[in-house]
Specification:
The chain is of the alpha/beta class and 400 residues long. It is 41% helix and 14% strand. The relative contact order is 0.11.
Length: 400
C-alpha cells in the first residue's frame, strides 16, 4: 500500500504593514493549516524580529534580505556587499538557506520571488502590475519590472487575484496564460456585521475622527491610480443642497507619491475646488475603527483607474453600504451588477452617479441587497481551497 507523504510548503510572509497583500498572505496561509496533506512553514527573512501576524507564528530566517531578493534601493555604502552577494547567488540555493528541500513548494506573496536558484517548485503572486500600466508615475517602476519579469520567467506557477490582472500580466509581460491561476481576494462578512457595532462605538468614532452625520466615503490611499482628485472635483459639482447634507470623507490623504507632474496635495485640491469645508481627511485608522467608518457612511465612492481587485468594494458591501464605482479594470469583474458604474475619466458622470444614489432611496436599498448577494461569490475558505489545489497539482504533475 502506498502512503502519500505530506507536501512541505514554505510560505514567505515578508509583508508586515497593513495592506491588501498582508491581508491576502495571512488569510490564505492560516487556512492552509487545515489540510492534512500539506505541512505549512510560514517564515520571513530579516535581521530584525518583526513580530507575528494573524493566528500563527512566522519563523524568522536570519539572513540579509537583499541577498535573497532584489533590494528596492541599495545605499552606496552597501553596494560592494550587494555586488559580492550577486556573485555568490548562482552557487547557493534558496531552499538551502531557509531549510527546505528540493521536493518542497515555496510560495512568495509579495509581487516578487527570490533571484537565487530554487530546487523546489515555486508559486509567486503578482497581485497586479499597476506600476507598469502607469509608466513613468512610480519611482519603483524599474524595480517592479525587474521582479515581475523574474516571476514570469522562473516561477513554476503564477497566482493573481482577478481575470483582469491575469490578462494584464499576459499582455504586458508576455506570460504564458496556462501558467497563471486566479485566486480571488475576499472579505469576512461577520467582521463587518452591524450587529457587532454599538451606538456608543459610533459616537466615539464621530468624535475621534470628526466624522459628519452623513457622508460619502472613499476608503483607501490617495495613490495616483485611486483617482482621488477627480472624486473631489466630482463632489464639488454636486448640488449645494446635497453637499450640505452629505460631506465627503477621504482616508489616508498622506498616502500619495510624487509623479513626473509633481506631488498631489489632496487638501489643496479640495481648496481649489471650493469644498475644503465639506471634505474630512481622517488619518491612521485602525482596523477596528475602519469597520465603523464604513458602516456610518451613506455611500462609498470608488473612482480608481486601475485595480488588481478592489477589496474596499466588498468591505463596503459587507457593511451594508451602497457603492458607486469606476467601470475600469477589475471593478466589473468584482462588483458585477451590484454597483452603479461611471467612467473614471468622466468627472460629470461620476458626480451624477453619486447624486443619483443619494437622491434615490429605492436604488440605494437595491444596491445594499445586491451587495450582500455579491459577497457570496467570494470567501477566504474558497480561495484557500483553490490555493491548496494548486499546491497539490504541482505534486501530481511531478509524479506523472
Amino acid at each position: 500500500m502506498t502512503v502519500n507523504k505530506k507536501i512541505h510548503v514554505h510560505c514567505n510572509l515578508q509583508v508586515f504593514q497593513k495592506c491588501g497583500i498582508n491581508t491576502y498572505q495571512t488569510e490564505i496561509t492560516q487556512r492552509l493549516f487545515q489540510y492534512d496533506d500539506i505541512d505549512v512553514d510560514p517564515f520571513y527573512i530579516c535581521f530584525k524580529i518583526l513580530g507575528e501576524d494573524g493566528d500563527f507564528p512566522r519563523r524568522r530566517v536570519r539572513f540579509p534580505r537583499h541577498f535573497v531578493f532584489y533590494a528596492h534601493e541599495v545605499p552606496t555604502s552597501r553596494k560592494p556587499v550587494s555586488f559580492l552577494f550577486d556573485l555568490i547567488k548562482p552557487f547557493v540555493s534558496f531552499d538551502s538557506i531557509i531549510g527546505g528541500k528540493s521536493e518542497d513548494v515555496f510560495i512568495f506573496f509579495d509581487n516578487t520571488m527570490t533571484t537565487m536558484p530554487v530546487k523546489g517548485k515555486t508559486i509567486a503572486l503578482l497581485h497586479d502590475i499597476i506600476p507598469l500600466r502607469m509608466a513613468g508615475v512610480f519611482k519603483w517602476e524599474d524595480f517592479f519590472r525587474k521582479n515581475a519579469k523574474n516571476v514570469v520567467k522562473n516561477a513554476t506557477r503564477i497566482v493573481t487575484v482577478s481575470e483582469y490582472s491575469k490578462k494584464d500580466i499576459v499582455e504586458v509581460l508576455h506570460a504564458d496564460p496556462d501558467k497563471i491561476d486566479v485566486v480571488y481576494n475576499a472579505v469576512d462578512p461577520e467582521i463587518f456585521s452591524r450587529e457587532k457595532t454599538s451606538a456608543e462605538k459610533f459616537r466615539a468614532l464621530r468624535e475621534k475622527y470628526g466624522l459628519p452625520e452623513k457622508y460619502i466615503l472613499h476608503f483607501g490611499s490617495c495613490l495616483p491610480q485611486k483617482n482621488v482628485p477627480a472624486l473631489i472635483r466630482a463632489y464639488s459639482m454636486m448640488p449645494d443642497a446635497l453637499k450640505n447634507e452629505y460631506r465627503l470623507v477621504i482616508t489616508n490623504p498622506e498616502q500619495v507619491v510624487e509623479t513626473s507632474e509633481g506631488k498631489d496635495d489632496i487638501r489643496k485640491i479640495a481648496a481649489e475646488n471650493g469644498v475644503s469645508d465639506y471634505v474630512v481627511f481622517p488619518e491612521k485608522i485602525s482596523d477596528e475603527d475602519k469597520i465603523g467608518m464604513y458602516q456610518l457612511a451613506s455611500l462609498m465612492a470608488w473612482p480608481s483607474y486601475l485595480e488588481g481587485f478592489g477589496i474596499p468594494i466588498l468591505e463596503a458591501q459587507a457593511s451594508g453600504v451602497p457603492v458607486v464605482s469606476s467601470d475600469s479594470s477589475s471593478m466589473p469583474e468584482v462588483a458585477g451588477d451590484s454597483v452603479v458604474y461611471f467612467n473614471p475619466y468622466d468627472t460629470d458622470g461620476m458626480s451624477q452617479a453619486m447624486t443619483k444614489c443619494l437622491t434615490d432611496e429605492l436604488l440605494r436599498s437595491e444596491l445594499v441587497a445586491k451587495g450582500y448577494e455579491n459577497l457570496k461569490r467570494f470567501s477566504w475558505d474558497k480561495s484557500a481551497k483553490k490555493f491548496h489545489d494548486i499546491i497539490t497539482s504541482l505534486e501530481r504533475k511531478e509524479i506523472s
